[in-house]
């Protein structure tokens, strides 16, 4: 049997430990839990007197031929309240209690760890939809770096993979080297601290727009066509002062930003199943929109509330803490194999910017509601938002469809979502 390959991980990865029943949220409620085929078969054949009746009641086969895979062969059917049938009163898992952690399905055994494969390289990261992972990723002042660790066989099982690029094979080595350079450039941009964070996203957008033009062109042949884009982006990293000045020249468009983000909130984030996010959303909507519906978010009252909350309560907390958003972006770029998991890099960039802008808007609203921010509130919002954004494919589709319907898809529109007026 081949020994597992070393895995590439962020340097925070080894520090994560589940805090179990002390956690303020539950990863055993509110979402679909896929079960890989091997585990499904073991569960259905098990004779444990405590678990066998539960396996019969709550373990279901995925009969949808369009979605059934080795990794998603079955699923846990949730109880009417949205919780897993194996969740005990002490917030711990009955399967783990009776049979040990090795008996868990891949989804439950690995979460919040995520396993990807880039070419022949295993990669592991943390999803901040877990509160403890969110604290670990977001609240560290130093930039995220990367290291190699010994891989575990279970983590490199094909049934455990969340993402693989290229799909189904390791790719051409020469092309993978270029794609690796593109990913490294994206990380270098969002971690370029001499450049203001929103200006970093401007530069990232310019690179993604250029990459998009090349990839969708009829003349595109292979990854080598992207090398001029990568070289230009690497050169731009040396000109942070100039890029800051260019970003400062962009005009802010607060009415557009508030209307667009208000529509995105209304169209994509109405979610009563996620209680923690519902609390954050209610706080932000009450502070900024003064109503239960974020639609039609245009007008002087809303703009005034936003400006006051931003200046008085949001900005004082985030002065010196820009690394929180930087860490969020860097973690997402690595975790999502950005910008390669879509035929259009710019579409993935739109998704990244919209999520960033939505979180920022909600934090401004929460800051106004609570007359300030603290680490606990910030982690609560990032974590509960990520439960929606990271695990709900319908959300992502609605997000981009909403942009298209509003004809707000260009790089200029993305800049308007980012730009704050000079104060």
Automatic annotation (TrEMBL):
It comes from the Bacteria. NCBIfam families: Lys_methyl_FliB (NF038110). This is Lysine-N-methylase. It comes from Methylogaea oryzae.
